[in-house]
Fold Sulfatase.
Amino acid sequence: MNPTSLSRRHTLRSLIGGSMLFPAILCELLAAEQPATSPLGPLAAKPPQFAAKAKRVIMVFATGGVSHIDTFDPKPSGKGRDGNGKDKLMGSVFSSSANQKCGTEVSDLFPHLRDSMEDICVIRSMKSAHFDHTEAAVGMHTGSATFTRPSMGSWLSYGLGTVNQNLPSFIVIAPHLPYGGTQVYASDFLPAYHQGTRVIPGTQPIANLVARTETERIQRQELGLAAALNQHHLQGRHDDSRLAARIKSYETAFQMQTSGPEAFDVNAEDDKTLAMYGLKRGDTKSFAWQCIVARRLAERGVRFIELVDSGSRPNWDSHGDMKEHEPLAKAADQPLAALIADLKQRGMLEDTLIVWATEFGRTPTKEGKFGRGHHGDCFSMWLAGGGVKGGIVHGETDDIGKSIVRDKVDVHDLHATILHQMGIDHTRLTYRHAGRDFRLTDVHGRVVKEILV
C-alpha cells in the first residue's frame, strides 16, 4: 500500500478515535480505500444502440443569424418579384464562385471553406424553429422554441457518456453567451451532470484550474474523505440529481487539474499546425484558438464540443449593413477549413461529425439601406465528416432565397440525423419526466438519409 493510503487511513482512524465520526461512516470511508471495482459512474461510456458512424460531435453555432443569400446559397441577381415590391429585393452583396471539383457555389466571404466543399454537405433547405433570436437559438439546441428542454449535447452525454473521465462529456467554448444564454447547454430535467461546461477563451479558460503542486497530496486526502462523506449523504437521495452533479463536478474538477491545462495548451502545437489555422502563438482569444482546442478535446475523448461563434459586437445579426458579415467570416473561414483538414489528416474526420449552424437566415429584401431582417422560412447550414456525404448540396430554395422548393429539413430532422450518426435511434433515446417519456425530437423528426454515406 502506498504512503498516501497509509496516511489517509491513519487520519481516518484518528478521527474516529476522537469521536468525530460515527463508526458506520468510518467503515464506508475505509472501504473507499480499497481498489475500485464499481463502474466509473453516471458518465461512464455506454455503447451506442447500433453501429455508429461518428464517435463525437463538434458543433459550431454562428449566433445572430447568418444570411444564406450572402454565404452558402448565393442569389447574385435577386431575380423575381416579392410581395413588398421588386425594388426592395437585394441579391447577394458579395460575389461567389463554385468549388472546382464538386461544383458547390459559395460566397467569396468563405474562400477557404469553398476549397473544402468536397468534404462538406451543404443543406440549403433548413427551416428554423422560430424567427426571433432567443426562440430560434434555443430551438436549434434543444428542439423546443417554447418550452425548457435539455440541450442536444446533454442528450448525447446522457445516452453515451464519455470516454475520458478526466474531462467533461460536454464542453461549450463561448467568449459570449448566445441568445438563450445558458439554456443552450443546460440539462433541464436530465441529471445535472449532463449539462455543458462553459469555457471562456483566454489564458485561464477555466478559472482556478491549475493545481497547487505543493498541496496535491493533502488535497487528494481531503477529496478522498469528502467523496466518502458525500456518497454516504447521497444514499437515500438518489433522485437528487443536483446533489449527484455537485459531487461529480468536484471529482471532475480535481481530475481536470492535470488533464485540463494540457488539453487547452495550444502552445504544444507545432508552427505548421498553428499556421494552418491562422493562429498566432500566444493568441488565446480568437476563433482559431477555439477550433484548434476543439480538435484537441476531440482527441481526448470529449463527446460533444460546441464552439459559439459570436464574434465581436455586433454579431452576425446584420440589420443595418451586410458588410458586417465580412470580418466575422474572415475570422471563421480559415480556422473552420483547417479544422476539417486537420481532422482528416489525423484520420479523425470519418468519425467526427462537424455541424455548422445558425439561428435562421436573412430576408431577400432590404432592411434599411443594405441590411436584412430575420428569415426563418429557409436558411443554410453544413455538415462534414461522421458518415455524411461530402461535395453535395441538399435541398433548394427559390430564385430569391425566400422559400424552400425542395427537400425541407427542420430542426427535429437535423437532430434525428445527428443522433443516428452517433448510433442512436432518436425515438428510443428517452427520459421519464413528469409522467411521460421525453426525447430530443419530441414526437417529430426523420433521419435525412439522402445526405448519409
Remarks:
- The mean pLDDT is 86.
